[in-house]
Amino acid sequence: MSTGAGIDVQRQLESLIQDFRAGDPPMPVIVLHAEDAADDDRVTELVDELRDGQQRHGTRLAVAPTEPPQGGIDPTAQAVRLLRDLGDGRKWGDRSASYRPYSFPRLGLVRALQDATDDPDMDEHWPTAPAGTPDGNAQREQAQTQLLRILARQRWRPRRPARRNRQALLNDVQQFLPAGVLGALTSLLTRPEWYVAVLAGIGLMILLAALNHVPGRAPLFLWLRRESRWFLTTTFLQSAARRQSTSVRLLRPVRSWRAIAARAYDVAEAMREGGPFPLQLYVLALFEDLRDNHRRSGWDLRGLKRTRPPLLILRQVSRENGGIELIKAVSDVRSRRSELDPLLIVAGVAADDAPLLDRGTDTGTPSGGPDSRSPLLSRPARLQQRLRHWYDEWAGNLRADQSPSRTNALPWVLRIALPRDELVQLRQADWRCVRARHRPPVARIVWSAYSLALVLALAATVGVVHARDLHRTYCSAGLLTADRDTELRPAPGGGTECVGLSTGDVRFGSHLKGGSDSEGGRLRELEKLVHDENARVMRDQPGAYVTVVYAGPLSSATVDPSLVKGAEELAGVYLAQRVVNENYRVKLRVLLANGGADMGHQGFTAEAIAAYAERDPTVVGVVGFGRDLQSSPEVTRRLQEAGLPIVSGTNSATYLPKDFSNWFSLAAPDEHQAKALGLVAQQLRGKSDAPYALVLARDTKASQDRYTSEQAHYGGEMLRDKGFRLLPSRTYRVANGKPELRLHAESICRGEDVPSVIYFAGRVEDIGPLMTQLGVEPGCANREISILTGDDLSKAKFSGTGGRDGVAPRITLYHAALAELREAASGTAFYQDAAQYLPWLEPGEATYDAPGFASGQTALAHDATRALYWAASLGDVRQSRAATWVNLRGVKLEGMATGTIDFTDAPLYGERHGHSIVLARVRRTPEGLSRAEVLCSRPAGVNKPLDVEQCSIR
Asked: Residues of the signal sequence (predicted)?
């Protein structure tokens, strides 16, 4: 600043700015004028220096065009002209000033109404008949319609160049960004791919933007814009409302639109009448916009980032250029509203025009600041102290000075008369430019676009990492969510498999990496059939169904890609579901649970079933868990805690029914199987003196298998009881899915004591390598050897039945099987139902010895499902989970695929009798084929034990 007055005024401005950082001080209209008219130009230069200094300090300021008008324009209209251009954010400085450009939506709405009111197309539509008459009301409605049509054509915005229209279009599109984000997040709940969610959000934004810019229509959600809410609720316009509703609600668009339409016409009529109303409305809109631009509680904390108040510069105000009227309107609006706004106005006025801003008062004391004759304005006092005193006195008198009784009062004007000696230019070395203490506000650092970009980058990184973790952990996952009832777990031989309970859109067949094409295709087909049937049940009978979970091996490993057991069991479960739903009132819904290859992850599957059962009371029990593993006791205990009974078709564990009351099985226990095979062993021993026998078992130390150890235990006891001399038992390891039997075969066959009977406690996939080794080893190749084994061999497909397995030339294989199908076939509708409901079966293929049925897996799963359903629907009424558990001990079903399923004699914590059992023999025929035949059998429901005569090997 080049003058003493300029330095002091600049210091006073910076003092107000410093106070603005901490609060909301009242901002006056500072009017500067010289004491002598000869110094008017110096005052104008001082105002220009103030403008340049505030620009360098980063103040948002605008300079109103106060040049003398061309022609005789009304001062009030000229004042309106000064304000119209202030609605352009570029008039208030560039981005380097502070934060981001101002926005003036309220001032823009007022300008749009003014443009529509002054539009030539409105001239002939204004009503001419008196208000309240029928003609007047009709003309008023027509004028309102025309006004709304013009406003719609303008997009409810002031007329502006095409480039500005493009910016308005961008602003309109931005308002739909939250809707697009909401649409994207909503789509994520369905767990689609990430790009589907992005396309959904962008598509919703494009649709709303297109609808928003339909030509000749008002923008979407017009009544929800902040300027519209202000327009309807400000008390300044209540006098023009004519008792119209001001309700603005999201869910009441028609009523809200009617309110804003009526208010727009009322305001347009008032603006057409002229007077002080249009000018004061412009001033009010400007104040409201600036207050909103500096609102500290805004979502972007803009008030905390804009630490300097906006400054409006009026270089030379006069009556002709409308400056005097503008200052009066500012004072009037502030006095009427009694609300603080941040706008600081600095105006220069000629000394001769300064009296136009004086106020007539009752006390005779001017309150625009004491004049030069006051003792407080004595010449020795520094202007700096005088300015501060004037401001303090002005601020203290605001309460009284706003009273209506103060005639012609301008309480918000602080008029400062500058003496000549203070306007003298100083030496350049004495020039000063004071600035308030400045430091970057914390809000600009913490809550800014850069911080947001950093947070978004971190969130995106975390989201991507989290999404990758979800996709690596769960079978079905989206960007943020996942189906947590299924997980990806390591599979034997490498890779992963999907295990758990399929409650949503997970299909285990789609995750298969091993398995033959036919088996994998059959599993996928069955999953679709079960899913479609479930959908039909829940659609047609939403309150009359029970849910049964089938838990089986629905995936395979690369080392053993067979899906025979899971696919055949699932076929039986689906067949039972179709039979039930076609013939009974209470429907059956089936959920599928995959325990993994060889049920290796059945612990997690049981946990998922128990957790889901807590959420779904229709779950009444579980069918499956047909493999005896080390985790079987814990699995059964966990489901017992959840109140779920288990009906297994093929799990032959002897200890489970003794230890758990919720365990029911159709399979003959391992101990019973060993005793039945003892009938064969007794005949093989004959009358010779203690022939040698051997137990050859799979090594289970590195696996979860418990079945083979149970078989080895009971098989060894049986051979000992039958009088055989047992050689030391042998265990073979399995590496990469293949049994290591060569060294064992050499030791067995080349030893001094070659066993005539071998009890093989292994799996069906190991029998082929064993036969190959024994068939070529000296000592065994030319010796008659009998191999006894348990029910796992019932899954083998010997060549006599079109399969892939066989026996060595001089070796006879005796094995137990769990399902007697031949005797039960004549008394069951199982095969008739299979031919009707299993779509892949051709006519005549549904027989007890046909592929897919001969192993008994399908029949046992079917019977187990029917038994559990019977308990869950006793009396054709849907039963609870607890009632189902109790009712199972009263189940007796005849005509099942394996005979009569009878749990009525099953003791609590004890073995039951009456299981179906088969003893089969496999021998090599002279033609070189392996032929399987049934030695003896007993259908389910028969308690009479087998004897030697029935099971004769002769």
From this structure: none
Q: Does residue 374 fall inside a structural domain?
A: no
Q: Which residue has the tokens 């060889």?
A: 598
Q: Identify the sign of the CA torsion 488, 490, 494, 499.
A: negative
Q: What pLDDT does residue 436 have?
A: 75
**What do you get for the CA distance between the two ends of the chain, in Å?**
127
The torsion angles phi and psi of 685, rounded to 5 degrees, stand at -70, -40
631-675: per-residue pLDDT in tens? Answer: 999 999 999 999 999 999 999 999 999 999 999 999 999 999 999
Shared domain check, 573 and 503: yes
Please check whether residue 368 lies inside any domain of the structure. Answer: no
The answer to the question of residue 195 being in a domain is yes
Residue with token string 């579901």? 577
In a domain, residue 22? The reply is yes
Dihedral angle computed from the Cα positions of residues 517, 522, 523 and 524, in that order, rounded to the nearest 10 degrees? 90
Residue 547 and residue 453 share a domain: no
Model pLDDT for residues 257-312, shown as the tens digit of each residue: 888 888 889 899 989 988 889 999 999 999 999 999 998 888 888 888 888 899 99
- Cα gap 109→104, rounded to integer Å: 9
Alpha carbon of 810 to those of 40, 209, 703, 756, 899: distances in Å?
130, 84, 32, 11, 35
Sequential DSSP letters for 389-418: HHHHHHHHTHHHHT-TTSTT--TTEEEEEE
Domain count, the chain: 6
Q: What is the structure's pLDDT at 631?
A: 92
CA distance 739 to 731: 10
Strands 917-924 and 811-817, how do they pair? antiparallel
Q: Please say whether the beta carbons of 555 and 512 come within 8 A.
A: yes
Beta bridge partners of 648: 665
What are the φ/ψ torsions at residue 672 (nearest 5 degrees)? -65, -40
> Three-state SS for 34?
strand
Q: Are residue 758 and residue 731 in the same domain, yes or no?
A: yes
- Tell me the per-residue pLDDT of 196-235, one tens digit each, with 9 for 90 and over: 667 777 776 777 666 666 655 667 777 778 888 888 888 8
**Are residues 856 and 817 in contact, defined by beta-carbon separation less than 8 angstroms?**
yes
CATH of the domain at 845: 3.40.50.2300
Q: Quote the domain boundaries for residue 465.
A: 448-473
Q: Are residues 617 and 516 in the same domain?
A: yes
Give the Cα separation of 610 and 630 in Å (integer): 19
Asked whether 539 and 523 are in contact (CB, 8 A), the reply is: no
Rounded to whole angstroms, how far apart are CA atoms 423 and 4?
6
641 and 567 inside one domain: yes
pLDDT digits (tens, 9 = 90+) for 132-141: 788 888 998 8
CB-based contacts of 252: which residues, under 8 Å, 6+ apart? none
The confidence score (pLDDT) of residue 180 equals 58
| pLDDT score recorded for residue 373 | 33
Locate 743 and state its tokens.
């060294």
Assigned token pair, 480? 């943020």
Among candidate residues 303, 264, 301, the one with its CA nearest the CA of residue 281: 264
Q: Both 78 and 205 in a single domain?
A: no
Please tell me whether residues 562 and 422 are part of one structural domain: no
The percentage of residues in the chain with a pLDDT greater than 90, rounded to a whole number, is: 40
Residues 400 and 533 occupy one common structural domain: no
Cα–Cα distance, 754 to 816 (Å, whole number)? 24
CA quadruple 504, 505, 510, 513: dihedral sign: negative
SS3 content of the chain, % helix, strand, coil (to 5): 50, 15, 40
Question: CA-CA distance, 607 to 643, in Å (whole number)?
Answer: 13
Q: Which residue has the tokens 């695929």?
A: 897
Q: Can you name the residues that pair with 487 across neighbouring β-strands?
A: 499
Confidence band of 336 (pLDDT split at 50, 70, 90): confident
User: Which has the higher per-residue pLDDT, 155 or 194?
Assistant: 155
DSSP state of 318: -
Residue (of 280, 277, 282, 302) closest to 291 by Cα position: 302
Bridge partners (DSSP) of residue 621 are 548
